[in-house]
Specification:
The protein has 224 residues and is α/β, with parallel strands linked by helices. It contains 8 helices and 10 strands. A 5-stranded parallel beta sheet has the order 3-2-4-1-5, sandwiched between helices. The chain starts with a strand and ends in a 6-residue tail after the last strand.
Length: 224
Amino acid sequence: MALYIVSTPIGNLKDITLRALEVLKSVDFIACEDTRVTARLLSRYNIQKPLISYHSYNKLQQGNLLIEKLKSGQSGALVSDSGTPGVSDPGSLLISQAIEAGIDISVIPGPSALLAALSASGFPSDNFYFCGFLSSKANRRKRQLEELKKLKTTVVFYEAPHRILKTLNDILEIFGDIEICLAREMTKKFEEIRREKVSLSLHHFSKTPSRGEFVIVIGKTSKK
């Protein structure tokens, strides 16, 4: 019995690794956030395996089911819709359950949105702080940004497209008009990586529809 943590493409399906494909072909089942998204990936590579939905809203119930399958001797793969499972997604809970149950864990590394954006930003990356998604509540989000401003390191976090303008306004208010890097649709046809002042990003996205989740990078050299 083994649980394989398999990284999947963040956009371009060609970014899947050979080892990831081997594992996906060999396991008894695949646990995934959205079966439709994973089905497209598997179809591209002619892989047919049972898909089990595992996401934020059913993770407690489905987690127990998946652990029982693994304990019975089956092998399974855990994937997210994109990138590395367990990073800002419910997969971390399943991984913890599997470890507690004595199930072997094997990681198949690959694409990661946060690392792709960090490397493309040009900001110092020898030491950085990743904080997933900021709060959707305005007051709490501002408090989080105030805490991040105190850090002496590069900061990376995700943001949803419908909140990007609010978050950029908060960054402008708390950090000032610093240089940041915003990345979205990475590895896709309409990939956009912007390195500019916050005010310029605000101007751009107030006039241009923002699609796809963002990765925002604030370099430690930007903070005064």
